C-alpha cells in the first residue's frame, strides 16, 4: 500500500525521511487521526512504491500527487520537508500550510550556513554502495543521537519500518543526492511555513532557528525525530498551527 489513510477531519499529508517509509508515523498518527484525515505516503522507491528514474523533486512529486488531496496541510520530515517546500512552490493552491519537521531549506553546511558537513554526506553515498543495510543502521543511530530516549526511539523506528518492504537501492542513492544538492534558501515561500526543530538534532543544527525566526518552534530535549520522542508536544505544535491557519 503506497498511501495509508486513517482518521477524520482536515486532510493532513505526511512525507517521511530518507531510508524510511510511511510506517515511521504510525505511533504519532494514533493521536493525529483524532483530529485529521491522515494520508501516510510512501515516497518513490520506499515502502514498496516503485522508484523514480531520477533524483528530481518534481518527478518524485508527480509520482505521488495523483493519489493525494487537492488541498491539505502538508507535513514533511527530514528529506520529506524538501518535497513539501517544492510542492508549495509548484502548487501553492494545494497547500494550506507547510509543516516542516526536523528539515531544512538546505541540508549541507556552507559558508555562513550550519548544516551537515559535506564530507559526511559524501561518506554516506560511498558507504551506501558498500553496505546499504549498515548505512541505514548508522543513519538511524545519528537520528536519535542526543535524545534521552535514544535506544527506545531506535527500537520503535525499526519496528515501524519493518512493516513495509526495504527501500530500493536507487531510491536511497537518489535521496542522498537530493539532500546534497537541493537549495531553497533564496526562494520566498508562497504559503505559510511552520518549522519544528529539536535542539539536540545532529542532522539539522539548531542554528537554523535563527534564520527562521518566529516560524520555528524548538523542542529542547528532542533530536531528529521529535514526533517519536515527544509525540504529545509535536501534536500540540501541529494543532496550534491549524488553529492559527484556519
UniProtKB/TrEMBL annotation:
One of its GO terms (cellular component) is cytoplasm. Pfam families: Abhydrolase_1 (PF00561). Its EC number is 3.1.1.85. HAMAP family: Carboxylester. The keyword Transcription does not apply. Belongs to the AB hydrolase superfamily. Carboxylesterase BioH family. One of its GO terms (biological process) is biotin biosynthetic process. Residues 12-231 form the AB hydrolase-1 domain. The active site is at residues 78, 201, 224. The gene is bioH. Monomer. The physiological role of BioH is to remove the methyl group introduced by BioC when the pimeloyl moiety is complete. It allows to synthesize pimeloyl-ACP via the fatty acid synthetic pathway through the hydrolysis of the ester bonds of pimeloyl-ACP esters. This is Pimeloyl-[acyl-carrier protein] methyl ester esterase.
Amino acid at each position: 500500500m503506497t498511501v495509508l489513510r486513517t482518521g477524520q477531519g482536515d486532510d493532513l499529508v505526511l512525507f517521511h525521511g530518507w531510508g524510511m517509509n510511511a510506517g515511521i508515523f504510525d505511533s504519532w498518527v494514533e493521536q493525529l487521526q483524532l483530529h485529521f484525515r491522515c494520508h501516510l505516503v510512501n515516497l518513490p522507491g520506499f515502502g514498496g512504491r516503485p522508484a523514480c528514474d531520477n533524483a528530481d523533486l518534481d518527478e518524485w512529486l508527480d509520482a505521488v500527487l495523483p493519489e493525494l488531496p487537492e488541498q491539505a496541510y502538508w507535513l514533511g520530515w527530514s528529506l520529506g520537508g524538501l518535497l513539501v517546500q517544492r510542492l508549495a512552490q509548484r502548487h501553492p493552491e494545494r497547500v494550506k500550510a507547510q509543516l516542516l519537521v526536523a528539515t531544512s531549506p538546505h541540508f549541507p553546511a556552507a559558508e555562513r550556513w550550519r548544516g551537515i558537513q559535506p564530507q559526511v554526506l559524501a561518506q554516506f553515498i560511498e558507504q551506501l554502495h558498500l553496505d546499504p543495510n549498515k548505512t541505514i543502521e548508522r543513519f538511524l543511530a545519528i537520528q536519535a543521537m542526543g535524545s534521552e530516549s535514544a535506544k527506545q526511539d531506535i527500537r520503535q523506528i525499526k519496528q515501524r519500518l519493518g512493516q513495509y518492504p526495504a527501500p530500493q537501492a536507487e531510491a536511497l542513492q537518489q535521496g542522498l543526492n537530493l539532500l546534497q544538492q537541493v537549495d531553497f534558501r533564496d526562494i520566498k515561500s508562497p504559503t505559510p511555513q511552520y518549522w519544528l526543530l529539536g535542539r539536540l538534532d545532529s542532522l539539522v543544527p539548531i542554528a537554523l532557528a535563527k534564520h527562521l525566526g518566529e516560524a520555528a518552534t524548538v523542542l529542547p530535549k528532542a533530536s531528529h525525530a521529535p514526533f517519536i520522542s515527544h509525540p504529545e508536544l509535536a501534536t500540540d505544535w501541529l494543532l496550534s498551527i491549524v488553529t492559527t491557519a484556519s
